[in-house]
Amino acid sequence: MSSQLHVTPVPAKQVPFDDSPTAWMAQGNCRNYPPATFFPSDGVGVDRARAICKGCPVTDKCLEYALEERIEHGVWGGCSERERRRILKRRRGLPA
Ligand code: SF4
User: Which of 3, 14, 18, 61 would bridge 24 by S-S if both were Cys, CB 3.0 to 4.6 A apart?
Assistant: First the structure.
């Protein structure tokens, strides 16, 4: 008599594969908020958006994306438009 173990195969977890350059967006904290939250019209709104970005698992990718794409509006990677302009100036060796 055989003493084989009978193991029921467990289906592999189905994780959609996304290798697009913006796949990281699906992991952002902002996915649970209205997009307008990240396009504030005043400093209070910027602070509110920054608070959501704080602790986001893709902050660095988000900021780099906004800098590389020269996105002018909104809060990306926890940085306001003005902060991103300063970062770009610093990278070009200009006074911020
Ligand atoms: S850093 Fe902010 S804007 Fe960027 S993905 Fe995270 S929550 Fe969204």
Answer: 61
Confidence of residue 15 (pLDDT cuts 50, 70, 90): low
Please write down the long-range contacts of 66-71, taking CB distance under 8 Å and 24 or more positions apart: 67/91
Global model pTM greater than 0.90: no
Is the CB of residue 79 below 6 angstroms from any atom belonging to ligand 1? no
User: Cα of 78 to ligand 1 centre, how many Å?
Assistant: 7
Cα 95 to ligand 1 centroid, rounded to whole Å:
27
The Cα 40–Cα 36 span in angstroms is: 7
Ligand 1 atom 6: the closest Cα is on which residue? 28
